[in-house]
Amino acid sequence: MSPSDLFQLIEFFPLVELPITFSEAAIRDISSTNKPLPAKYVHHILTEWEHNIDEFTEVIPCVSLPEGEDHFAIIYWKADLLTREYVLVTLDKQDISLISRKVIAGMKTDGERIIQSVANIEDDQIINVMAGEVSHNGHYDPMSSNAFTMEVLPGGNIYSQKEDEPLAWVEKKTSTEKK
C-alpha cells in the first residue's frame, strides 16, 4: 500500500477531543457515526498490524488522537469470535510506517470467564486502564481488578507501565496462581 493510500486511511478516523473513554458500549455509537473502512484498508490492517486473523475478524475505525510532532495516532476496534479490542497504533508521519501498537481496552473470553478493560484517554494522552474478570455465571471478582496507565510518548512509542496487552494480565495472574 502506498503512503498516499495510508494517508487516505487516516481520513476514516475522525479527530477526537480529549478526554475520551473506550468501553464495551462505546462501539455502538462509534460504528453508527463513522464511515466503514473500504476492504483494501481492512485487509492492510489485518495483514500488516494484526497477525491472528480469521474470516470472522471485523475492523471498525474509531478515532484519531491529536497529532504528535512526528506521528499520527489512531484507534480502531477489532473483533473476532472470542475477543473485542480497541487497538491504538502510532504511525510515522514521513512514511506512515507502524511505530507502535497496543490494545488499550476490550473484552476477551475463554468460555469460562470474561476479562474486560475500559480505557480513558486524558488531554495529555495519558491512558488510564481498568481491567477485571467476570465468571461465566456473572459473578464479578473485585480481587481480579487492576488499574494501570499507558502513554503516547513524543516519538510515537506507546509506553505501558503494566503489560503490552491489558487483557493478558489476568490470564498470567491466573496461571501463576494455579502453580
Please supply descriptive tags for the structure shown above.
4 helices; 179 residues; alpha+beta; 9 strands
Description:
It is built from four helices and nine strands; from the N terminus they run αβααββββββββα. With 179 residues, it is α+β, with helices and mostly antiparallel strands. The protein has one domain. Strands 1, 2, 3, 4, 5, 6, 7, 8 and 9 form a nine-stranded antiparallel beta sheet that branches. The longest helix has 11 residues. The C terminus is likely disordered.
In short:
This protein has helices at residues 3-10, 26-33, 39-49, 168-178; strands spanning 20-22, 58-64, 71-79, 83-92, 98-109, 113-121, 126-135, 140-152, 158-160.
> Which stretches of 5+ consecutive residues score pLDDT under 50?
173-179
The overall strand count is 9
Shape category: globular
- Estimated structural class: alpha+beta
Strand content: 35-45%
- The number of distinct structural domains comes to 1
Q: Rg from C-alpha positions?
A: 16 Å
Order of helices and strands: HEHHEEEEEEEEH
